[in-house]
Write a structure and sequence with these properties.
Number of strands: 2
Strand content: 5-15%
Low-confidence stretches: none
Number of helices: 5
Strand order of the largest sheet: 1-2
Shape: globular
């Protein structure tokens, strides 16, 4: 019973996260992928492409990213070094993306 409840809660969290990221992707498409939140989502996409390999090289060059993505890659490197397990990189990048998206939205709407 407890496992079923935990599974349901985790599924709800995953679903809400996916919808949140999807909504932000749509916003990024409208604003032509400008801003830190959009850069964070692009890093997440780059990491996602390594899911079959199990490990992710944490380098802008190897991920096919540019200078605007380096702050996120540096934070990943600080936590994991030059290479990270795919799952760990995704989970941490989701956290970084959420932080960047929140800041981005606050900047747009003038949050305090």
């Amino acid at each position: 019973m407890a496992e079923r409840i935990i599974s349901m809660v985790c599924q709800d969290v995953k679903t809400n996260y996916v919808y949140g990221v999807r909504g932000f992707i749509e916003t990024c498409e409208k604003i032509r992928w400008r801003g830190p939140g959009c850069a964070a989502i692009e890093v997440l996409f780059a990491i996602w492409r390594f899911r079959e390999k199990g490990e992710v090289p944490l380098s802008a060059d190897k991920l096919g990213l540019g200078p605007r993505h380096i702050p996120f890659i540096m934070r990943l490197q600080e936590k994991f070094g030059p290479v990270a397990l795919w799952e760990n990189a995704v989970i941490y990048m989701l956290q970084l993306a959420e932080e960047a998206i929140s800041k981005h939205i606050c900047r747009i709407f003038g949050c305090r």
